[in-house]
């Protein structure tokens, strides 16, 4: 009895240990939900039967005493596979099958949803195709109307996409200098132009200001003689400022009682050798601060050249420059230092061929004379006919250069009363032919107000719009471009011209016309847009009574007839053909 009692006790301990182990493992196993149908199919289970099945599954050997080899102890739970365990396995397999069925159903539902969305898209496309053509035409008309209506933002984006780098030079102190009260060439013109450029929003949005270093006397020595430079320094430093100012205002070199008359006569004789004079009646007056004035406008031109050569700009503008009449050892025509020649000499250090296009109205005699025998510089000048006695009396159509420079000086003398159409009909073919023959690498463009209608000394009937079309031709050549000022006795018209050209060069004319413009028909039948000057522009009172940028033409008779124009064009093109042969 004791032996059987011990065996039963060991059996109970073993069953208890196995039950604890199995329950701990079931905590980490996933709980599988069993439906009522599965329980009915497998059969009802009691709690004791499920515990016994779990206990029978787990242990393969027990720590209790084994019997002899070949004998099986009926009390030992060794690999017993009951019907309950088989039923549990069948239930789990059925559960996995049902899960796979549910997943397949979900996939089928998703595929059906995708098919339905695709079918709906196709149906919408078919419906859009079946829409009436009239609605589509109406929409296209509305879109075309929107595209035709100018939008300032759209125009500005297009201008930015095609915009070139444009640098602009302006110095307020340059407008302080004055050759004389009755002198026709006044630096204040460029300040009026700057007021328009600033007031119209061109300066702040489309231009890059230029601040170059001040040039020295050695820079002047590249073209001008040492004696002439020393005279300019003498006028600046050693003349009595009081006497100098009085003589400049009263037109008399002998107004100073305290000064010796012989000394004044010697000074006047020395200045006359270099074509300089005392008093406001002199065209090339020894005005106060003469050397500073020359250094300032030459600084702007040389700074523009440096920005072009370094690639920092595609177009450089200095309306204070363009002093084309100055000679190497003398002043002439209100020009003291020839900044155009100095600029060309600097450009020749990098570029082989330089084209000079002068649309000043006065012949660029100083520039042509400096390079009259050179084949690296071609000058094309549109100016007043010297046969009519116009200043400076040079620039005949037969003057084409000498030696190596033969054929590289092109002169286009214009008759009195030349209007926009006459100018455009000869300007574009001549300039394009010069570019094709000469193949320049850089262009120097010089523009003044002498050609404009209403100039005191000029005899032309050209407007700012006509000169603006010429500027578009030069700009369209897509070469580095240096733009300089020039002549012009009518201050307001010259300022209008330079502001209008600046808008064209900066690719912002359409934006400004959209903002400030109104359509106007010229007397010659040209339809243009006039730009009104805003009320907050400085010096606006100078541009009255119309307060616009338009330069109005007159009823002047055009002496540049069709026959005269065709013969002049033929002669100039023949001169260019001589250049091509050389």
Summary keywords:
582 residues; alpha/beta; two-stranded antiparallel sheet; 20 helices; 9% strand; elongated
What does this structure look like?
- Helix content is about 50%, strand content about 10%.
- With about 575 residues, it is of the alpha/beta class.
- The protein has an eight-stranded parallel β-sheet with strand order 2-1-3-8-7-4-5-6, with helices on both faces. A two-stranded antiparallel ribbon has the order 9-10.
- α17 links the parallel β7 and β8.
- α13 (about 290-310) packs parallel to α14.
- The protein is elongated.
Please outline the major beta sheet. 8 strands, parallel
Number of helices: 20
The whole-number mean of residue pLDDT values reads 78
Percent in helix? 40-55%
The end-to-end span amounts to: 142 Å
Summarize, please.
This protein is of the alpha/beta class and 582 residues long.
Layout of secondary structure:
Blueprint: H1 2-26, H2 36-42, H3 47-57, H4 83-129, H5 133-148, H6 152-162, E1 166-168, H7 188-199, H8 202-206, E2 208-209, H9 217-220, H10 226-237, H11 241-250, H12 261-273, H13 290-309, E3 315-318, H14 339-347, E4 354-361, H15 365-370, E5 377-384, E6 409-414, H16 420-438, E7 442-447, H17 464-475, E8 481-484, H18 491-505, H19 509-516, E9 517-521, E10 527-531, H20 562-581
Parallel strand pairs: 1-2, 1-3, 3-8, 4-5, 4-7, 5-6, 7-8
Antiparallel strand pairs: 9-10
Helix pairs in contact: 6-19, 7-18, 13-14, 16-17, 16-20, 17-18
